[in-house]
Structure to design on (292 residues):
């Protein structure tokens, strides 16, 4: 009975030792075998692996791409405008041994904290060298790539590789929004006043041009009318002169009749003239005088 007990105990101990010496590495993991804190073996391929029981220990790390969301950071741009910048990064462990040496037993949590410090420093440095218009334009992608490359170079000492860096949000601080809105409104009001002034000036020029055109048109028309009237008067005088030359007595008679007609217009016309006046020569004559 005692032999059977000893045998069973021995088999159990052997199984325990064997089980303690074996461990598995998932395809999503990387592992280190440590002996008294020193790295003895690096295992990056999935499968079954061994270690010395009770002497060596195994530390496993996530080999996948990991997220890093930073807290909002206030950044002062080159043009002295401040922005609240919210960024995130994607990273993974590239060198497990260097990673262990850099963060110790802190693991991914300690690495994320160190990476956030590096990322914040690069955000301040890179964005502080450009104007705010660059951050709000298509050049934003170039800025993010610059931040990624600089952060990647510094993060290599941690044994990690930064895959990507992206700026999720870049807004003005709350206390600056009202001031910015007031400045924008003042600028728009200034532009509006300028446009109104330019419109009024253009309207005055158009009105002045129209008035000058009216004056010039009326002057030209008046000149043409005077010319036509003068030509008509000249032609009329020519006709009168020709008629007078042919029959002066008839012309004098015609002019007298015209004078009578113009003088006696109206219902109560009154003429006070001496009876011997030449005005009545043709009224006193019994017949129209003929040319002698």
């Amino acid at each position: 009975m005692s032999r059977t007990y000893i045998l069973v105990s021995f088999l159990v101990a052997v199984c325990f030792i064997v089980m303690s010496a074996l461990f598995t590495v998932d395809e999503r993991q990387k592992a280190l075998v440590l002996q008294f804190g020193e790295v003895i073996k690096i295992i990056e391929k999935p499968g079954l692996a061994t270690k010395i029981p009770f002497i060596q220990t195994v530390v496993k790390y996530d080999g996948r791409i990991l997220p890093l969301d930073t807290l909002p950071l206030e950044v002062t741009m080159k043009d002295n405008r401040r922005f609240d910048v919210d960024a995130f990064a994607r990273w993974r462990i590239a060198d497990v041994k260097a990673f262990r040496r850099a963060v110790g037993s802190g693991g991914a949590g300690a690495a994320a904290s160190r990476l956030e410090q590096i990322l914040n420093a690069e955000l301040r440095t890179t964005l502080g060298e450009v104007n705010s218009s660059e951050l709000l334009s298509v050049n934003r992608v170039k800025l993010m790539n610059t931040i990624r490359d600089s952060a990647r170079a510094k993060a290599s000492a941690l044994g990690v590789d930064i895959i990507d860096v992206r700026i999720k949000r870049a807004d003005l601080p709350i206390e600056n929004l009202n001031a910015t809105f007031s400045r924008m409104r003042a600028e728009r009001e200034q532009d509006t006043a300028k446009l109104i002034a330019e419109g009024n000036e253009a309207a005055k020029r158009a009105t002045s041009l129209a008035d000058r055109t009216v004056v010039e048109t009326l002057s030209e028309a008046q000149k043409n009318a005077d010319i036509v009237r003068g030509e008509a008067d000249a032609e009329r005088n020519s006709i009168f002169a020709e008629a007078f030359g042919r029959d002066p007595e008839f012309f004098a008679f015609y002019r007298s009749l015209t004078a009578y007609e113009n003088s006696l217009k109206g219902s109560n016309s009154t003429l006070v003239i001496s009876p011997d006046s030449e005005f009545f020569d043709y009224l006193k004559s019994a017949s129209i005088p003929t040319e002698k």
About this structure: The chain has a mean pLDDT of 82.
